Task: structure prediction
Amino acid sequence: MSNESERMTITLPFNFKGKRNVTLDKAPESIQDNKQTVIQAVQQYGQDLLYASPRLRGDKGVVLEAIKQDTWALQYASDELRADKEVVLQAVNKYGGSLKHSSEQLKADKEVVCVAVRQIGNALQWASDTLKSDKDVVLEAVSKNQNSIRHASGELQELCNGKDPVKTLESAIAHEKLQASLAQKRPAPARTQTLKI
Result:
């Protein structure tokens, strides 16, 4: 069978009723490592990235195409690309829950996590512990979904216990900013010297 006829078969993943006939999992390794064919496949079904060769799961262009079709394809990308901020931002900007499949480093990146929780507040559950304690991040999450407070740090859950989490966090943030502003304006205490006689 020629490469051209293999490609024709592999790039027609749906029949006229919308069901998948052929996926990359049944394809020979040569097809799973063919960039053009894999891109065509993931553009139609992003999670076919799972069956792409390791080389192509590490190809940024292929992974970005897969994520455009289905953000959950991020889980099949190489470790390097799951740590690539551009790739992860594209995924979480489309669906915040894909933060789950990003690297630990990006789960601790405030910009990435804020984009994710703006899409789906419960994405806070995959943020680093540090960001689960960050009032600004948690406010973004609870502004989208108040129930996402359950994924915040114990300290912030306690602060919001039985109260509106959005109003409570907004008030706490405003109070901290006021305290910081006052501390900057306060003159330093005068130094006194004690003389020995």
